[in-house]
Write a structure and sequence with these properties.
heterodimer; A: Rossmann fold; Rossmann fold; 5-stranded mixed beta sheet; B: alpha/beta; two-stranded antiparallel ribbon; binds thiamine diphosphate
Chain lengths: 326, 286
Amino acid sequence: MNMDSQVAYEGKTMKGPFAKAIVELGNENDKIVALTADLGKYTDLYPFKEAFPERYFQIGMAEQNLFGVAGGMARTGLIPYVTTYGVFATRRANEQLAIDINYGRANVKIVCGLPGLTTFAGPTHQAIEDLAILRSMPGMTILDPCDAVELYQATKAIAEFDGPVYMRLQRGEVPVFFDENSYKFELGRAKVLNSDGEDLLIISLGLMTRHAFEAVLALEKEGIKATLVHVSTLKPFDTETILEQLYKSRAVVTCENHTVMGGLGSCVAEMAALHGAPIVLRMVGVQDVYATCGSTPFLFKRYGLDSATIVEHSREVLHAKEKFVS
Amino acid sequence: MGTDKVCNYLLKSRNLEQLRELAYRVRRNVLVQAAGKGQGYVGQGLGSADIFAVIYGSVLSWKPENLKWEDRDRFLLSIGHYSIATYATLAEYGIYSENDLKTYCDDGSILDMSANEYAPGFEITGGALAHGLSLAVGMALGAKYQRKTYRIINLLSDGEMNEGSTWEAAMCASSFGLNNLTALVDVNNVMADGYASEVLKLEPVVDKWQAFGWHVQRVNGNEIQELLDAFDCAEKVKRQPQIIICDTLMGKGVRFIETRKKAHFVRVDQNEWEVAFRQLEESKSR
Ligand SMILES: Cc1ncc(C[n+]2csc(CCOP(=O)(O)OP(=O)(O)O)c2C)c(N)n1
């Protein structure tokens, strides 16, 4: 495979890329403030708290109040970065996100941990439908960065953007997938990581690109060539880039750390139908079930989000394509 | 399950020695679950063991052999991460085995890190904190309307008093005069980001609940006699929901955990588990 030089996947990690970026932002701009609901430690906010104690607001474990307060602060000209877990933002504080933040386009950056199945604490903590909920909110911007490099860059990029943003957070030691020097995150742009995949198109969101990448390598060993497109901005969706690829390929697999209803897979299906791209699609993601408790590797395997499942779906969709074409 | 269960189905007991023994066994079962694991809520399990012993061993009307008995008292654990204490207690009634306990937090185990209503003995799914009191109000209303005499008991945490939903439920419960509802709060003064008292100003807690129309008591939640007396008093209250605010010591019973800097996740190193079991044993004669 002719994998783009943007990728440097060697098993390295970076500690707290979000923390690093937000402290730098704090130094550059004194309007950047941070708010949390008793999860500062667990969303990598402590370095910011230490650097700018007067700009760090512990709101207490009260997420509805948290997002209301952030909406108020934004209306005074500040740029609040607000952290909690995805479930508590999108499930509990849904109306505050919709009305206090999104409707008035308050300049709040909602940065949320434990995306999808990346938590030990079970269904109460697994944000499996956060993206679907937010995609249905008019005008919302939604990011799901892949790795430490992209998360770091995206944290900085959204400060430049005037309006509400929801970004999924990976905390602690975050894997490095992209090459720090050559990779450039662009808000609203999908990245074609290799374009020589004549057999099949894989579109992956967020950290799923790491698994999709492994799947592409495994498929190559079987003689199957797949193009890999990485999406980190789910909304606004990069129609141009994705459509161009959809027209080239009839067999498509989408991968998301999220329910397959209302996220990336749905987005691609809608787009293909609207633009008349004749594709057969398989969606890798949580298949309309609640997952159990467990470690991330265990859950990814059990619920079919690992690279082996991506490979299986790829083979299967190729098969389906042949039937569809003939 | 084991024949060595002293309390062999300790129910509605008033015997202080038996209840202390049950609390000790709950603590031991907490250690059995957490030992060697890099995760789990050992501090919370140890700190709340006396509360669990009193609730299951003395207060609740329930049938270990029929958990779905229609007229049972309902115990709601909204603080899902305290599930370790429920498993530990129910193991003394044969509902979980020692081998089950050892699978706590393991991939594929039914002993989830967070309370799940699909596991035996849990009335609700906890963990998305501060849902419990509303569900408790609903059950208390449902019982009254259907002229059922069972009681609803909800264990909350000090952290849950940060959430608006707790106070919405509190106002609702007193408006309906739900005297069949008793809440307890485990005030261990710890939350995820540090001491609860530093995360948000919670005190005066007694005054708050009183102002919301509740009958309020505050006790040492590690003193079984105080807990028994508080429940006796609560049961006699007419027309008001009751709350028992329980000050507890996180890690109670294992001295090095008691004195370790308090944190939501208490760190216990691999080589310390043996010491933990020993110190718990010693605590019996303290
Ligand atoms: C609604 C909600 N917000 C945030 C969390 C994440 N969380 C889990 S435990 C915890 C600490 C809450 O403090 P407390 O309930 O008093 O627990 P303790 O630290 O005493 O175990 C937090 C913030 C959660 N589970 N639910």
